[in-house]
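Could you please review the protein record set out just below?
***
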Amino acid sequence: MNAKTPDALMQQAMEANANWKDPKRYLWMLSPAIPLIGFGALTAYAIAPKKLRALAWTGPLLVHGIIPALDRMIGDDTTNPPDAAISRLENDKYYEWIVKAFIPAQYAATFLGAWVAGRRDIPLSDYIGLTLSVGAINGIAINTGHELSHKHGRADRIMSMLALAPTAYTHFAVEHPYGHHKRVATPEDPASSRMGESFWKFLPRTVIGGFKSSVKIEKERLARKGKSFWSKDNELLQGWAMSAAVLGAAAVVGGRRSIPFLAGQAAYGASLLEVINYIEHYGLLRQKDENGKYERTQPEHSWNSNQVVTNLVLYQLQRHSDHHAHPTRSFQALRHFDNAPQLPGGYASMLIPAYIPSWWYKIMDERVIRHYKGALDKINMDPENRESLMKQYAELAADIAATTVEALKADAPSTEETKAPAETAA
């Protein structure tokens, strides 16, 4: 007989895991390809602006149209790298260079966009399209900055701020890893949205709150070293100087007519980050123990998605639960959790619904209530709308809670079944 022993089968499985290869290894290059696509579209538009006017709108078309459509066509991928391959993936420099390759392409598109926008013969509609296109590139670049902000090397921190500089959002490299990750899924976190809070109400709260948080974090860090806020070691000041230099240089290239373009693309790019923030933790709440301390962050505290194309573009940001569990883990090693709450679509597909409050609430509010099995008191609700939400969803929550109880009863063994072993033993 050729039957293998359990030890032999285990050894075979270990060898297979050790030899595992990332099936998406070269597909990850789709992310740094985005600014190259944008640069190509801007170049073609600059050569033939009258014939190729539609190319001015390449960025919004990609973000809000093509990527969501491809997500729906291709679907999900829930496969995880085996544990034995994690260390090898983390130490493979190829993935690090993919992330960093985004930055020079991003800058090329930004400066070309400023030059094109500064031309006198650009129609207003094209000017707006160019602004949104470059803003989309720099908005996606914030995810590059996000990936690098979780690394501890000084060079990685600098490159993180370089990726964030064109949107003037370099404080994110301070607030996100040291503020958001500490307070995520709590009412105290400005970057965690609340059920019943529209994106437009969330936006000023997260922008202002995140900025204030970053200043507080950096002040405290420097104070621990005996330094003032105005020290040259202040990462916020370093980041703001980078933004001023980058946007100032782009304004020199594009001239005065490019200044509204530069401001607009920065605002739109930053808004893309914040709408993703809005999506990631909507209504989710870490519960407190008897001492009033929040529980540890769990997979249940982040909305996830496994739609392939958006994950390729955003370095698997949609596997957000694993990111919060292991913030320094590189994107290629992030895992899917079956028990993590899942969005009905990828992040890109959820952007437009997030802009329209009635549509968003229709999609997400019931999903949040079902996640908490009808327990409305466990949801992170907008305090100004809490009373109305409790009334609005009382009947739905009661039905969900009752259904949950019935399901638990159906799954539980009957009294006769639990007695059977004892009777048999007797």
